[in-house]
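Support request from a user on the community tier.

User writes: "When I paste my structure tokens into the form, the page sometimes reloads and wipes my input. The last time it worked, I copied everything first. Here is what I submitted, just in case something in the input itself triggers the reload:"
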């Protein structure tokens, strides 16, 4: 994630986002409605807020994620 990215916003369709750099505290990911997936950078300490995702996949680093919206029928794996 580039250092100056403040938000990643999806739309009403199915969005799939795979991060190539660590999620930073100043960055929020909100993928809107639909069946959306966020895959965090493996091996990094990802920190940030994620909302409106159906699947959240972490890596082997110490991830600290806040949910920006309620997780209903969501799959969250930060292992």
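"...and here is what came back when it finally went through:"
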């Amino acid at each position: 994630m580039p250092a100056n990215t403040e938000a990643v916003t999806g739309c009403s369709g199915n969005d799939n986002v795979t991060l190539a750099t660590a999620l930073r505290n100043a960055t929020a990911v909100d993928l809107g409605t639909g069946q959306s997936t966020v895959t965090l950078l493996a091996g990094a300490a990802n920190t940030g807020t994620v909302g409106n995702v159906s699947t959240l996949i972490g890596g082997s680093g110490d991830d600290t994620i806040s949910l920006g919206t309620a997780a209903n029928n969501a799959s969250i794996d930060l292992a």
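Agent notes: The reload is a front-end session timeout and is unrelated to the input. The CA atoms of residues 30 and 45 lie 19 Å apart. The mean pLDDT is 89. Escalated to web team.
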